[in-house]
Specification:
44% helix, 328 residues, rod-shaped, 11 helices, Rossmann fold, 2 domains, three-stranded antiparallel beta sheet
C-alpha cells in the first residue's frame, strides 16, 4: 500500500506546475521569432550538445516536484490482521466396542463415525480438542491440544478390538470431565458417539453427567445405528466370516437425560448422512468467537525522493558547469 501522510502538502504542486508551464512558454516564446524561420529551424537536426542542454534544463524542475512530494511524507505500508480467538475445549468420545462393526451404516458404524469425527476436527481449526476411545473402559489417546494433525492421526489409527469389549459410557464421560475440569475455556463440550447401552465400568453415566453439570460442561450424544436389527460380521468356521442379524439396542432415554441435564442435546443417526448432519448441527451450536482486527504498519520513504532530487540537482550543475561549460 502507498499513501502520503501529509497529503495537503500536495497542493503546493499547483504553483509548481504553473511555474513549469510558464517557463516552458517563455522558452518557446524566446525561440519562435518569425513563423517561417521557426518552421525551418525545427527541421534542423539538434546537436548532441543542445539535446543534452535541453534535457538537463528539466532537472531542477523535476527536483522541485520531488521535494514537494517528499514534504508530503510518502509512505509504504503493509496490512496485517490480528485474530482474537476465544476457542472451545472439546473432548471427542468414540465407542469402539464390537457392536460398532454393524453394517447398517456403510461400510460399518465405526468407519462412518471415525470419518465424521475427522471432518469435524477439520472444520474447527481454532479449538482445543481431545480424544477418548472407549469400550470396557476409556483411555485418553489425546489430551486437549491444538495440534489437529496429530489428533487426526490418532483418530485414524484407532482400531476396533484394541480395548476389551464392552460399553462403559459412564467411564468415557468421567474421563472426559477429568480432562476438562481444569480448562479455562468459556465453553467446554463433550461429544459422545455410541451405539449401545452402558454395561461396563464402575461409574454410572448419570453420576458422570452430574459431575459435568457441576463444572459447566455440556454433553452432546450421538446414537449411531438404525432401529430394529442390523447385520453384523461374525467369525465362522475355518477362518470364514459370516453375517448375522443382531438387535440394535441404544439407551436413548439415558442419553437424552444426561445431555438434557448438562444443556447439550441427543441425536440419533440412522445413516451416514444423518451422522454428518448431526455434527454440522453441533458445529453451528458451539461457535468459536473470532474477532479480526486489521491494522497497517507504515514506513516513510521520503528520503528516496530527497536523494533523487539531490541527484538531479548535482546532475544539472555537472552538465552545465563541467560538460557544457555554459557561460553566464
Amino acid at each position: 500500500m502507498f499513501r502520503f501522510e501529509s497529503w495537503a502538502v500536495l497542493f503546493l504542486l499547483i504553483p509548481v506546475i504553473f511555474l513549469i508551464w510558464w517557463l516552458v512558454k517563455q522558452n518557446r516564446a524566446g525561440r519562435e521569432g518569425i513563423r517561417f524561420s521557426g518552421f525551418l529551424m525545427d527541421l534542423v537536426p539538434v546537436s548532441p550538445r543542445e539535446y543534452l542542454f535541453r534535457v538537463a534544463a528539466w532537472f531542477p524542475l523535476v527536483a522541485l516536484v520531488l521535494m514537494v512530494l517528499a514534504l508530503a511524507r510518502p509512505q509504504l505500508g503493509k496490512l496485517y490482521e490480528r485474530q482474537d480467538i476465544k476457542g472451545i475445549d472439546i473432548v471427542l468420545c468414540l465407542d469402539i466396542s464390537s457392536s460398532m462393526k454393524a453394517m447398517d451404516l456403510k461400510p460399518n458404524r465405526f468407519q462412518v463415525a471415525k470419518e465424521t469425527l475427522l471432518s469435524f476436527v477439520d472444520g474447527r481449526p481454532y479449538d482445543r480438542m481431545g480424544y477418548i476411545p472407549f469400550s470396557a473402559y476409556a483411555i485418553t489417546r489425546c489430551p486437549l491440544t491444538t495440534d489437529h494433525k496429530m489428533l487426526k492421526q490418532l483418530i485414524a489409527d484407532t482400531k476396533l478390538g484394541s480395548i476389551e469389549d464392552g460399553t462403559a459410557i459412564g467411564m468415557a464421560i468421567a474421563t472426559a470431565v477429568n480432562r476438562l475440569r481444569k480448562s479455562k475455556a468459556k465453553s467446554k463440550v463433550i461429544i459422545l458417539a455410541t451405539d449401545g447401552m452402558n454395561n461396563r465400568g464402575n461409574i454410572d453415566p448419570r453420576s458422570a453427567a452430574e459431575l459435568a453439570e457441576a463444572l459447566g460442561i455440556r454433553i452432546y450424544a450421538d446414537g449411531v445405528g438404525t432401529t430394529g436389527y442390523a447385520e453384523m460380521p461374525q467369525p465362522g468356521p475355518f477362518g470364514t466370516v459370516r453375517t448375522v442379524k443382531v438387535l440394535v439396542q441404544i439407551d436413548e432415554n439415558m442419553l437424552k437425560e444426561i445431555t438434557g441435564k448438562t444443556g447439550g442435546a441427543y441425536f440419533r443417526a440412522t445413516n451416514a448422512e444423518k451422522l454428518k448432519a448431526i455434527y454440522s448441527i453441533i458445529d453451528r451450536m458451539e461457535k468459536t468467537k473470532i474477532e479480526v482486527k486489521k491494522f497497517a504498519l507504515w514506513r516513510d520513504i521520503y528520503s528516496y525522493f530527497l536523494w533523487s532530487a539531490l541527484a538531479l540537482m548535482l546532475g544539472f550543475f555537472f552538465v552545465r558547469e563541467i560538460v557544457l561549460r555554459v557561460k553566464q
